[in-house]
Design goal:
Radius of gyration of chain A: 23 Å
Order of helices and strands of chain B: HHHHHHHH
Number of strands of chain B: 0
Low-confidence stretches of chain B: 86-112
Distance between the termini of chain B: 47 Å
Strand content of chain A: 15-25%
CATH class of the largest domain in chain A: Mainly Beta
Shape of chain A: elongated
Number of domains of chain B: 2
Largest sheet of chain A: 3 strands, antiparallel
Largest sheet of chain B: none
Mean pLDDT of chain A: 71
Radius of gyration of chain B: 19 Å
Distance between the termini of chain A: 63 Å
CATH superfamily of the largest domain in chain A: Rieske [2Fe-2S] iron-sulphur domain
Oligomer: heterodimer
Chain lengths: ~260, ~170
């Protein structure tokens, strides 16, 4: 073993440590027979990543804007300007963020906490007074049974056109979109808080679908006052598709495939 | 006659359909997000200029994967002076297979790392163990040493030897 120790493979060790921290390794000093080892280490690190390399949604949107910009430049096409406020600041996810939230929610992750002041959501049309999406050509889809939904429970469902939760809010069955109205990250239900929480920037929506930890929620003693990730901007409520109970079955009105 | 708006919509549909797949393809080969994002950006910025979006879908997919493959090869060549060989036995273990990528195909996390498991199975037990603990379980060197009941220094040496042996296996196969 002595001969190996004398090789002092510090550059490769550094490469691996950086890699496993989720950061960009510097190639310095990784040469010769260590180069293929570094490449293999990179591949193994990727294979061991529970997020499976799903891209950061903030990156996906930023690249989309860059491409629009470039395309507008190439073709001199009018009417392609960036939406006002759509400039996304780059925010890095730590590996810990990704691991904590795990595979399922990774697709919905955009950024860590504390970054929110620099993020402005793209402008969106305000939802109409009635928040229900106007699905004309829809159908009722069974998504849960009443037995799944004791008071305070939430059941995740997914139809061809819609991802959401059905919840039992003090006896009222309601369907709520699971998509955060800020940047489209996927919300998780937290039974102890009775809210749908966004992993990206910490927005919480109550079981009526309204932002619960915005400025109003924080001052009203709703429990979010000490919330380190309280939400500084007002977000539209979650989309609430129509829901009905037929016998024991909970059905949601959703667009057809 | 397609308008500019039509092309934009069409292009963005292609982008939406492929960005996750291409990112994962690249990530599987560079192992870190900053580089994977840079290379993914290169692929699609190049697509803005060069991709003929009127081609049939399979050709478009093939074009994007080819550009991604080249970007990865350039990356390893430029920074690490590695010749272009495909260590494909390992990378791509869990990414969807062309040309019919299914974005939901990764639901089964275990099946995903078949290729990695196969590689590890060909290594001496201690080598496989150290790589598994370090890379698949993502333990630190100290934690790995603790798990294996060896010293910190020995864990480092073992990791080094295991990687060298595994890289050799991959290379001779490639």
């Amino acid at each position: 073993m002595a001969d190996d120790r004398n090789q002092a493979p510090e550059a490769l060790d550094r490469f691996i440590d950086t890699l496993l921290e989720g950061e960009r390794p510097a190639p310095d000093g990784v040469v010769g027979e260590e180069a293929p080892m570094a490449r293999l280490a990179a591949e193994l690190a990727a294979a061991g990543d529970p997020t499976r390399g799903v891209p950061d949604p903030a990156f996906v949107e930023q690249l989309r804007l860059r491409m629009r910009d470039a395309d507008a430049g190439i073709a001199s096409v009018q009417g392609w300007t960036l939406p006002v406020g759509a400039q996304l600041h780059r925010i890095r996810l730590t590996r810990r963020d990704l691991l904590r939230v795990g595979l399922g929610a990774a697709a919905g992750l955009a950024a860590g906490a504390g970054a929110i002041s620099v993020l402005r959501p793209p402008p969106r049309a305000p939802l109409s007074g009635n928040e229900r999406p106007l699905v004309r050509d829809g159908e009722w889809v069974a998504v849960a049974t009443l037995a799944d939904l004791p008071e305070g429970a939430a059941v995740r469902f997914s139809t061809v056109a819609f991802d959401g939760y059905v919840v039992n809010d003090a006896g009222t069955i309601r369907a709520l979109s699971s998509v955060c109205t800020h940047m489209g990250c996927t919300l998780s239900y937290r039974p102890q808080w009775r809210d749908l929480r966004c992993p990206c920037h910490g927005a919480s929506f109550n079981l009526s679908g309204e932002l619960a930890n915005g400025s109003e929620g924080r001052s009203s003693g709703s429990g979010y006052r000490g919330d380190a990730q309280a939400y500084p901007i007002d977000l539209p409520p979650l989309v609430r598709p129509e829901v009905k109970v037929s016998g024991e079955t909970v059905l949601v009105w959703t667009a057809k495939a | 006659m397609a308008t500019a708006e039509d092309s934009r919509v069409r292009f963005e549909a292609i982008y939406d359909e492929h960005v996750t797949l291409i990112h994962r393809f690249i990530y599987a080969r560079v192992g870190n997000r900053p580089d994977a994002e840079d290379l993914t950006g290169q692929v699609f910025m190049r697509a803005v200029e060069q991709l003929d979006i009127d081609r049939p879908a399979p050709q478009i997919s093939a074009w994007l994967y080819r550009v991604a493959q080249n970007a990865v090869a350039d990356y390893w060549r430029a920074f690490y002076r590695l010749p272009q060989i495909g260590a494909e036995q390992v990378a791509g273990a869990w990414e969807p297979v062309m040309p019919q990528p299914d974005p939901h195909a990764d639901a089964d996390a275990d099946r995903a790392s078949t290729a990695v498991r196969r590689l590890l199975a060909r290594l001496p037990e201690q080598y496989a163990r150290v790589l598994e603990l370090r890379f698949l379980h993502r333990l630190s060197v100290a934690e790995t040493a603790g798990q294996m009941g060896i010293s910190h220094g020995n864990a480092k040496v073992l990791q080094y030897r295991a990687l060298r042996k595994a890289a050799l296996l991959v290379e001779t196969d490639g």
